[in-house]
Amino acid sequence: MHILHTGSHGHHSAGTKDMTQGNPYSLMVGFALPILLSQIFQQLYNTADAFIVGKCLGTNALAAVTSSGTLIFLMISFVMGTAMGAGVVISRYFGAGKEEEVSRAIHTVLAFGIVSGVVLTIVGVALTPTFLAWMQTDPEVMPEAVEYFRYYFLGSLSMVMYNICRSVINALGDSRRPLYYLIFSSLLNIFLDWLFLAVFRWGVWSAAVATVLSQTGSVVLCMAYLLRKGNIFTVELRKIRFHRDMFSEIVRYGLPSGVQNSVIAFANVIVQSQINSFGKLAMAAYGTQAKIEGFAFLPITSFNMASTTFISQNLGARQYDRAKKGARFSILAAMLLAELIGVCCFAFAPYLIGFFDQTPGVIAFGVQQARTVALFYCLLAFSHSVAAVCRGAGKAFVPMCVMLSVWCVIRILYIILVMRLTGEIGYIYWAYPLTWGISSVIYLIYYLRSDWVHGFEE
C-alpha cells in the first residue's frame, strides 16, 4: 500500500533532509560533498596508517598491513551491503512520510549489526592464519600479518556498527554528521598510530588497535545522536530487535548488494593471491596502487550514495521524472570526476607510488599497473553508478547478477587463463579494464531499455 506524498514535511527533525523537493542537482551535490569529504578523510587516514607503519616498521610490516585490505573488505562487505539495503528501505519510507516504518527499520538494522559484529569477531580472530595462508601471504610477512589482523578483527563490532549507523543517518538525508564523526575518528587514529608506533615503539598490532579505538569513538558519537530524544527516528535501546517484516524487506534489498560486494571482494582476493605469488615487491606495489585507486573511487562512491538516497526517497514519493533526472546527473558527474583523477594517476604514477615506497622494484610494478588501468576509470564509474541507480530503485538483484558474472567469473577465468599461458604480471592488471568495459556495455543496455523507475511497485 502507498501513502501518497503530501509535500508537508514539518515533522522532519534538524539534520535530516527531504530530497523530494527543490533543485535535484544542488540537492545531490550538497549531499555528495560531505560524503566526498568524509571519504577523503577515510582514505587519508588509511593512507596515514600505511605511511606511519612503513616509515616506523619497514617494508615487511607495510606489506602485512596493505596486503590485507582485500581480506578485511571480504569479511565486512556482506554486512556493508545489507546496511545499504536498510538505507534504501529507510529512505523510501522517509520519502513517503511513514514514521513508524522508519523507526522499525532502524531498530531492526541495529539488531542485525550487533549480531553480525559478534559473529565477525569470532570468525575473524579464529580463522586469520587460515585466511592469510589461503591468500598465499609471503612467509616473511606472515607473522606480522596474523598479529595485525587478529587485533583488527577484535574490533569487528565497532567496524560494523559504524557502517550501519552511517548508513542510517545518510538514509535520512543527513550526510554531514557522519563527516564530523569520521574527521574526529581519523584524527584520533593518526594520533594513536604516531603515539603507539613512533613514541612507544610497539609492533604492527598496535596500528590495528589504534584503528579499533578510533572507530569505537565514532560509533559512540553516532549512537549518542541516534539516541537523542525528540527526533522522529529516536532509537530506544529496549526496542532494538528484529522485526520480521522489516528484516525480510531489508534482506530483500540488502542481500543482493551484500552478495555483490562479497563477490567483488572474493575476485579481488583471488587477484591478490596471484599477485602475492610474484613476491613482496609486487605485493607492496599492488597494495600501494590500491590506496591510490581509492582516491579515484571517492567521487564515484559519494555520487552513488547520493543517487541511491535521492532515487529511493523520490520513488517513495512517486516522483518518477525527478528520480530519472537525478540518475542522469549522478552518472555523468561520477564518470567525469573519476576520469579526471585517472588522467592525473596516469601522469604522476611514479611520484604517487614513490611517496609510499622508494624501492625501485615497487615503483616499477606500481607504475605498470597504474598506467594499465587509470585511463579506464570512467568505465568503472559508469558501472558503479548504474548499479547505485538500480539499488535505489529496489532492483539490487540486477547489479548482483552483472557483477557476479562479469567481475567475478569472467575476471577469475581470464586470470587463470593468462597465468597459464604467459605468467606475466602485466596481463593480470588488464583484468580490470577488460571487465569494467564488459559490465558497462551490459549496464548501458539495461539502463536504456528497462523500466527501472517502477521497481518498488511490482
Order of helices and strands: HHHHHHHHHHHHHHHH
Shape descriptor reads: globular
How many strands appear in the DSSP assignment? 0
- Average pLDDT: 88
Percent helix: over 70%
Strand content: under 5%
Structural class: mainly alpha
Helix count from the secondary structure assignment: 16
The biggest sheet amounts to: none
Our measurement of the CA-to-CA distance between the termini, rounded to an integer number of angstroms, reads 12 Å
From the alpha-carbon coordinates, what is the Rg to the nearest angstrom? 21 Å
| Count of all domains | 1
Describe the protein's architecture and organization.
The protein is an all-alpha fold. It has one domain (24-449). It contains 16 helices and no strands. The chain has helices at 24-57, 59-66, 69-95, 99-134, 142-154, 156-171, 176-199, 205-226, 244-276, 280-316, 320-356, 360-373, 377-392, 397-421, 425-429, 431-449.
Topology at a glance:
Blueprint: H1 24-57, H2 59-66, H3 69-95, H4 99-134, H5 142-154, H6 156-171, H7 176-199, H8 205-226, H9 244-276, H10 280-316, H11 320-356, H12 360-373, H13 377-392, H14 397-421, H15 425-429, H16 431-449
Short overview:
The protein is an all-alpha fold and 458 residues long. It contains 16 helices and no strands.
Write out key terms for the chains shown.
disordered N terminus, 458 residues, globular, 0% strand, mainly alpha, 80% helix
